Amino acid sequence: MHAPATQPRAQVKEAGVLAEFDTDEAIMEAATKVRDAGFTRWDCHTPFPVHGLDGAMGIRQTILPWLVLGAGLTGVCAACLMQWWMNAVDYQFVVSGKPMWSLPANVPIMFEVMVLFSGLTAFGAMFALNGLPLWYKPQFRSERFRRVTDDKFFVWVDARDPKYGEATAFLSGLGSNHVETVKEVIE
């Protein structure tokens, strides 16, 4: 007889530390201190947009506008080249003595292709730059974190941060209401 197969045990590991604050001023101050302390893998969660929080966190300007500009210019060039090839090279057809190719007649198509390329790039780049789709975060395991959609503010320090060992003590010293270590199950 064979022994029954054993199920591998799920491992539990620390995912990060979550600190709760009551006001937007408190989280702004905490974000500035966390940034200045040198933490690199952390985030703030608020029930509403907090003006200036990006600056307090040290978040750099996004590259998205440059990607959209590049896609728009590529669209203009692609449309111009496509129409020139179709009308002046591949299928020459004289209509009422008009030139084979002229820029003014092709501007509407160039505009439309520019909008198409820009829109698709903005949509795709937003997903890629934001790491979407992301269906789960370890913070969701915390009962207290549910208040982030109502009236509480949270600072999250990820366990992959090089300074994670100092995170619990550091966040406790920032005047937070509650500091919690969040664990996640790895199967």
Which residue ranges are poorly predicted, with pLDDT under 50 across at least 5 consecutive positions? none
**Extended strand count:** 4
CATH class bucket of the largest domain: Alpha Beta
Count of all domains: 2
Order of helices and strands: EHEHHHEHE
Radius of gyration: 27 Å
User: How far from one another are the termini?
Assistant: 28 Å
Largest sheet: 4 strands, antiparallel
What global shape is seen?
elongated
- Major sheet: arrangement of strands: 2-3-1-4
Instruction: Provide the β-strand percentage band.
Output: 15-25%
CATH A-level architecture of the largest domain:
2-Layer Sandwich
Considering DSSP H and I runs of 4 or more, what fraction of the residues is helical?
40-55%
Q: Number of helical segments? A: 5
Secondary structure class reads alpha+beta
Overall pLDDT metric = 92
What is the third-level CATH name, the topology of the largest domain?
A: Alpha-Beta Plaits
Per-chain topology:
Layout: E1 11-21, H1 24-36, E2 42-45, H2 53-57, H3 64-90, H4 103-129, E3 153-158, H5 167-172, E4 178-186
Antiparallel strand pairs: 1-3, 1-4, 2-3
Helix pairs in contact: 3-4
